[in-house]
Amino acid sequence: xxxxxxxxxxxxxxxxxxxxxxxxxxxxxxxxxxxxxxxxxxxxxxxxxxxxxxxxxxxxxxxxxxxxxxxxxxxxxxxxxxxxxxxxxxxxxxxxxxxxxxxxxxxxxxxxxxxxxxxxxxxxxxxxxxxxxxxxxxxxxxxxxxxxxxxxxxxxxxxxxxxxxxxxxxxxxxxxxxxxxxxxxxxxxxxxxxxxxxxxxxxxxxxxxxxxxxxxxxxxxxxxxxxxxxxxxxxxxxxxxxxxxxxxxxxxxxxxxxxxxxxxxxxxxxxxxxxxxxxxxxxxxxxxxxxxxxxxxxxxxxxxxxxxxxxxxxxxxxxxxxxxxxxxxxxxxxxxxxxxxxxxxxxxxxxxxxxxxxxxxxxxxxxxxxxxxxxxxxxxxxxxxxxxxxxxxxxxxxxxxxxxxxxxxxxxxxxxxxxxxxxxxxxxxxxxxxxxxxxxxxxxxxxxxxxxxxxxxxxxxxxxxxxxxxxxxxxxxxxxxxxxxxxxxxxxxxxxxxxxxxxxxxxxxxxxxxxxxxxxxxxxxxxxxxxxxxxxxxxxxxxxxxxxxxxxxxxxxxxxxxxxxxxxxxxxxxxxxxxxxxxxxxxxxxxxxxxxxxxxxxxxxxxxxxxxxxxxxxxxxxxxxxxxxxxxxxxxxxxxxxxxxxxxxxxxxxxxxxxxxxxxxxxxxxxxxxxxxxxxxx
Length: 682
Fold this sequence. Notes:
By secondary structure, the protein is mainly α. Helices cover 72% and strands 1% of the residues. A hairpin with an 8-residue loop joins β1 (560-563) and β2. The radius of gyration is 34 Å and the shape is elongated. It starts with a helix and ends with a helix. Pfam families: Neurochondrin (PF05536).
């Protein structure tokens, strides 16, 4: 490059730096020099004698910064392809006091910030290595490092996942630095860091040293007397940590339990202050963060093992949270139809659902008063499922910061309420309200919709666990209704549709590995409903009904096996491998299923011959004969005898088959008097 070129460059950039040029003048400069001139300045290796290379680059960046003031030019390919070069300028070594170098760094940040403001700018910056460069520039604490942090914040807010994917090690290094600064800060900067830190928490595991620093810093802040503008960012940071790590970031021991109790206490006070005062403007982002901390408190108060809290602390916190939940109910009772689609209402229903999942005995009057609203609210969001999912994302955003999305919240209101409704359907008063408001019909529709997600043709491996848990909880609610409101099952047409789905689904479900608990729920519910709907045409030996009962027999018959014991002639009865690991959750369903099957036998004449063809009674007697009676618990003997007796009474061929299998002798060994008597009769 000649001296004339350098002089021309200086004149142009002097005009640009004047700062008083308007858009029209800026465009005239661009039309005059285009991208060719700054390109030469940025890439030339032939600087005039006595002129440092970085001076030419500084002139080129100054021109680009001028052009980038125009959003259209900021998105131009000739600017975008300079991103890798510009990123290197942020970490280039040189004299920190050099005016030209400082000017170049300022102009570089101006260019990159302008690109970030274009629709696809963040994606191009991330692909061009800008995130790593910004991290290194910030960690180096050289000139302009504060601008690096500001631009990092913007990129994380716009494209968090992509940033972490491209530059995780560098971002973690920044998080470590910010966490350490936060832990040491004694001035107002700690409150500013509270607002920044949530954006730098990774979507994966947070380093343990960062968690220690963050917890220590928060403990010092929240343990002091603060104004709301100082306390609120700290509560929001704590909520973000609760989302990301549960209670793992809180140390075990006395200091940790005191800190957790303080967190929950402050959250409850904030919720009551915000929601009990009618007419007060609610800071929804802060209250939603407090909800997250209350949810953490609920989890720790209900944890039996390795809880951070001592029993007296749990009792105290439950009492405090009860008052806060009362304030939430008070708020929800005032919500009109025009507000039902607001994210804060969804967040309020979520925390109430978390409370009701564990506690329904307190605030019973208030909860019953709110139930009609909850049913209507859940129905509204169910019928507008896409809006419900969008609300869940808005709530996640609301709980963290105005820009950063947080962890995924469940995508519908009904799923949040299922555990609480499961408890409430056991009680007469709440159950009557739920039935009156149409909750059973809504639950049937919801179950059928969710079931479609698990049906053949859908990839169940990508489904969240909450879908299957929701289906199981629905089954528990229906089981409660079968027992406490059998008339409802018989008269409401939605349960006929539900029964049809259970019958067609169970045969394939029992064959699927890892889904035994759901199969147990479906089988037991179907058997209990079949007893009530035995006169339905669908249960009169149709292919669907035969397939269902065959699958139910498979579930009931495969629970136990004989296992040889060293040094003994007789085997012992043990749980089969698939059942053993989940028997604590399964056994009640299994016994209830055996009882329900027994009740179906006399009501469905075709069932006993079908059971005989499956060889279940013969194989059951064979199993009992092969093991030591002492290894079979009395409740198992009673369950087996109940099924065998009803099958023998219902069908002559069943009796004969049992006799051929030495049924009388086996009955005598196990003291099954009813079976022994039945088999002794003609």
